[in-house]
Write a structure and sequence with these properties.
mainly beta; 53% strand; 4-stranded antiparallel β-sheet; globular
Amino acid sequence: QVQLVESGGGSVQAGGSLRLSCAASGIMFSASTMAWYRQAPGKERELVAAITGYGGSSSYRPNYADSVLGRVTISRDNARKMVFLQMNSLKSEDTAVYYCNAEFVKRQYWGKGTLVTVSV
């Protein structure tokens, strides 16, 4: 059974930083593409950042949504089966529930989410 458990959310003032963590189990982690999505109130879920799994020359390649480029870094620790999202210079528009996502052989798995609230 695949489990993704997020942690690290909370309340922070604009300009501050947060580091989200996601612990994975029941999945071939190193081969999975890991990602963070977010969903703000009244909006659709959107991709924040992703990092590919092992795959030859395209291994562990990150990509970011334009809205967070330069402020966010995604990283992974294959030994601990964890993925991280370091968020800096947070803005009020970053307020959302952040979800960890894993993709392996075209199957998607989701965590339950962690709330990030950015106040001005």
